[in-house]
Amino acid sequence: MKRVICILLFFGAVSAGMLTLPFALEAGIFAASALDEHDDVLQAIKRGELMSYAKIKRIAEAKLQGVVVGQKLRRTNRGWQYDLRVRRKDGKVMVAIVDARTGEIVATR
């Protein structure tokens, strides 16, 4: 790891724009499981198993009449779900669980 840091410093590649993925992986900046999960999500979108976040956001904002202020995508035993934090027009924040494949709002609290 010291060798990687020395190489990065030597070439002036400390800025995030120049830090390449192989260097980042070797330096331990990204966890392998996070990259695997990212690949799983991209493959699921290509297979049509889930909608993109942009589509889900539009659906949720229209149905719940608010603005999405936070999101989390997770895989459950029922499939992929988005957990969305939505700030409504009255200022209250609610959590909506949305089926990522259909865009259906499963639950709110």
UniProtKB/TrEMBL annotation:
Pfam families, alphabetized: PepSY
The PepSY domain extends over 51-108
**This chain belongs to which protein, by name?**
PepSY domain-containing protein
